[in-house]
C-alpha cells in the first residue's frame, strides 16, 4: 500500500511540475522528455532483469547447496547462546527458538526465499505464547528489529546488480556493507533492549558484542592506514577470497552431508531463473516512476534542496545524491532497488554516488514492509515500540554507510 502511494505520487508530482514549467517557463521539452523516459526506463528494466538471470541462477544454486549441506543449521547453533539472552521471555527449549535462529541465519546468508517462511513460522509460534494477541510481544519486536536492521553476510543481489551495471569490481562494496549493517544491527539491539529493559551486561552478550565491535574497529583501523588505491585493492581481494571460500565451503558441506550438490545447484538455479522473471514487472514499474520523476526535474529539486541545507551548515554534500535510496529503503525494497539502479545508471556504477547507493541498499532492510507482513500474518494491531526501534536502526545504518563510504571510496 505504501509503495502504491509513492508510485502515484511520482507521477502526480512530476505532472504538476512539468505543467508549471510549460506554462510559466515555456519549457516545451519537458513533456516529451517525460514520455521518452517511460520507454527508455522500461527497456532498461527489462535488460537489467534479463542480465540478472544467469548470475542469480548461479548464486541461488550455490545457496541451495549450502542450505541442504546444513550450513544454516550450523550457523543457528553458533548463534544460539547470544540469541537466548536477547529473547529472555521465551521459555528455554521452546521450538520457536529454532525458527528464530534459522530465519536470522538465512537472512545473514542471503537466503530470502527460505528466510521469509521461517520468519512467518517463528511469528506464529511466538503468537501462541503471546499473552495479548493483538499487541506486539517483546520477543516479536526484538525479532522484527533483527530482521529490519538488515544484518547480511553476503549481499548477493547488490553485487549482481553492480555486475550488470558494468562495475569493474562488483564486490568492492562487500566489506563496506558488512560494516554498515553491523552498526545498524548493533544500534537496533541496544535500543530495543533499552525499551524492553533487557540486561545486556552479562558475560555472553558482552563477549559476543564486544568481540564483534573489536573486530569491526580493527577492520576500520586497518583500512584507515591505507591510501585509496591500496584500500580498494585489499578490500576487493579480501571480499573475493571470502566469497570464494564460502562457495567452496558450501560445496564441501554438501559433499560431507552426502548431498547431490549438482542436483541441489540445479534446484536453486531454477529458483534464480524464476526470480529474475518475477521481478521484471516490479522493476519496470519502479524505474518508469523514477524516470518520469527525474525527467520532470522533481528529483533535481528534491536533491538540490537537501544539498542546499547540508551546504548551509558547512558539511560536505557529496553523499546527498545517493539519499533517494536511503529514503526509500524503509518503505520498499523494490523501490530502493530502483533508486539504486537509477543512481548507478545516472552517475556510474563505480562513482561515489553509485557505490554509496549500494551500501545504503545493503545497510538496512524494508522496515515498514517487514512489520506489515510479519505482524499482519498473526493479526498484531498494536506494534508498540517496533516502528521506533526499526527506524532508529535504519538511521544508524544510513549514518554508518555515509562514513564508511567516505573511508573506502574517496
What does this structure look like?
About 80% of the residues lie in helices and about 0% in strands. By secondary structure, the chain is mostly helical. The longest helix is centred in the first third of the chain and has 39 residues. The two termini are about 40 Å apart.
Q: Helices and strands in order, then pairings?
A:
Blueprint: H1 2-25, H2 30-68, H3 71-86, H4 96-108, H5 112-129, H6 138-148, H7 156-164, H8 174-196, H9 203-224, H10 228-256, H11 261-295, H12 298-312, H13 323-328, H14 333-347, H15 352-363, H16 367-377, H17 386-409
Helix pairs in contact: 1-11, 2-7, 2-10, 2-11, 3-4, 4-5, 5-16, 6-8, 6-16, 6-17, 8-15, 8-17, 11-14, 14-15, 15-17
Q: What descriptors fit this protein?
A:
410 residues; mainly alpha; 79% helix; globular
Structural class: mainly alpha
Q: Biggest sheet: strands, sense, closure?
A: none
Low-confidence stretches: none
For the record, give the distance between the C-alpha atoms at the N and C termini, rounded to a whole number. Answer: 38 Å
Number of helices: 17
Helix content: over 70%
Computed Rg: 22 Å
Secondary-structure element pattern, one letter each = HHHHHHHHHHHHHHHHH
Query: How much of the polypeptide forms β-strand, as a percent range?
Result: under 5%
Assembly classification? single chain
Overall number of strands: 0
Average of per-residue pLDDT values: 82
**Global shape:** globular
Amino acid at each position: 500500500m505504501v509503495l502504491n502511494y509513492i508510485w502515484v505520487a511520482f507521477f502526480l508530482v512530476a505532472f504538476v511540475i512539468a505543467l508549471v514549467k510549460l506554462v510559466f517557463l515555456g519549457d516545451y521539452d519537458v513533456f516529451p522528455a517525460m514520455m521518452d523516459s517511460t520507454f527508455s526506463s522500461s527497456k532498461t528494466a527489462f535488460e537489467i532483469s534479463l542480465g540478472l538471470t544467469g548470475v542469480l541462477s548461479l548464486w541461488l544454486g550455490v545457496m541451495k547447496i549450502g542450505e541442504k549441506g546444513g550450513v544454516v543449521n550450523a550457523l543457528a547453533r553458533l548463534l544460539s547462546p547470544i540469541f537466548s539472552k536477547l529473547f529472555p521471555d521465551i521459555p528455554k527449549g521452546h521450538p520457536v527458538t529454532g525458527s528464530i535462529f534459522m530465519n536470522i541465519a538465512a537472512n545473514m546468508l542471503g537466503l530470502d526465499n527460505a528466510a521469509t517462511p521461517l520468519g512467518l513460522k517463528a511469528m506464529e509460534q511466538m503468537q501462541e505464547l503471546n499473552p495479548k494477541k493483538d499487541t506486539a510481544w517483546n520477543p516479536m519486536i526484538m525479532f522484527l528489529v533483527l530482521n529490519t536492521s538488515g544484518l547480511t553476510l553476503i549481499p548477493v543481489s547488490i553485487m549482481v546488480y553492480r555486475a550488470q551495471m558494468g562495475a569493474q569490481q562488483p564486490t568492492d562494496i562487500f566489506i563496506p556493507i558488512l560494516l554498515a549493517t553491523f552498526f545498524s544491527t548493533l544500534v537496533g539491539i541496544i535500543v530495543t533492549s533499552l525499551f524492553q529493559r533487557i540486561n545486556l551486561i552479562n558475560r555472553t552478550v558482552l563477549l559476543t558484542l564486544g568481540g564483534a565491535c573489536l573486530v569491526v574497529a580493527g577492520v576500520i583501523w586497518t583500512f584507515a592506514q591505507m591510501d585509496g588505491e591500496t584500500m580498494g585493492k585489499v578490500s576487493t581481494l579480501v571480499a573475493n577470497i571470502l566469497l570464494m571460500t564460502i562457495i567452496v565451503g558450501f560445496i564441501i558441506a554438501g559433499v560431507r552431508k552426502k548431498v547431490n550438490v549438482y542436483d541441489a545447484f540445479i534446484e536453486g538455479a531454477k529458483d534464480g531463473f524464476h526470480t529474475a522473471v518475477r521481478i521484471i514487472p516490479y522493476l519496470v514499474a519502479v524505474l518508469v516512476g523514477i524516470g518520469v520523476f527525474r525527467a520532470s526535474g522533481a528529483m533535481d529539486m528534491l536533491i538540490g534542496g537537501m544539498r542546499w541545507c547540508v551546504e548551509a551548515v558547512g558539511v560536505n554534500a557529496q553523499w546527498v545524491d545517493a539519499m533517494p535510496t536511503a529514503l526509500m529503503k524503509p518503505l520498499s525494497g523494490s523501490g530502493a532497488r530502483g533508486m539504486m539502479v537509477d543512481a548507478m545508471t545516472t552517475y556510474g556504477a563505480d562513482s561515489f554516488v553509485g557505490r554509496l547507493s549500494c551500501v545504503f541498499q545493503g545497510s538496512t532492510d524494508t522496515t515498514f514492509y517487514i512489520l506489515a507482513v510479519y505482524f499482519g500474518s498473526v493479526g498484531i494491531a498494536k506494534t508498540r515500540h517496533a516502528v521506533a526501534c526499526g527506524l532508529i536502526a535504519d538511521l544508524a545504518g544510513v549514518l554508518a554507510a555515509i562514513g564508511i563510504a567516505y573511508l573506502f571510496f574517496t
